[in-house]
Amino acid sequence: MQLNEAFKLISDKVGESLEPRGFRQVKANSAKENELAALFVSENVAYSVIYYKDKMHTLLRECPMTDEGPDNDWKTLATWIFDPEHDGQKEANSIANDFVEAISAPTAQKRAKATKKSKGKKSDDDGNADPLFLSKRFVTLFPELKEEIQYEEQGYNPFRGVTFARASIVPKVNKLIEKGSDAELKKLGGILSTQYQNGDLDTRSIITVVILNSVDPANDEKISAYLSEDLQKAFKHAKKYRGKEVKPEKEKKQKPTMAQRLERYNNK
To answer: What is the Cα–Cα distance from 232 to 26, expressed in whole angstroms?
Structure first.
């Protein structure tokens, strides 16, 4: 599959998902030969899909809008590798679907409704991607998580981020760090770093105190090499909590299954 075709497939799917929410595609101000870019804007938020030819990275980014346009304080929501020589329509569709899921998440839609910033005024938001959003990011590495996340969502409200990470994400992360390829480790580091940057306080704590602190200390350097500078510092600070009990969320009553609800209805 040609690179331009793959990029068009991805950006078109993103655009189709955004259009009903009032977004429009505008010309991206990127004259760099090394990049392909698509830009979508609304009154409050801008999204861009970028492909860097040298790194073969496809990024979904977000920034607030000002009266003059995007403020260019971009936050990366998702990163995928797309190699035109080996990847095709299947991989392009996977990237597109992941990007659409990212911009369709409740937290993303909430940001799109937020008040528009004045130019030059920085947001004081310290991150608003939640633990559920974090968990879904790992599906690109561990597809089997998709069903586990759905089961957790159906059974508990709110989503038990700490409990789910400890039971379902940590074992898979440890196995990948132990036996994974450099490409897989790089992707894992990218997910952790991006979500640490964009996450709320609960999400950041899950990344450092639950996930990274559960790594075998012998493999600390192995994964640290793929983390952002900010996350490396946070991980170093979080190590003092290693071995200490992380209190899980206070569980609310489990939601009845559909079968249980039907049984109760039939027995009335």
So the answer is: 37
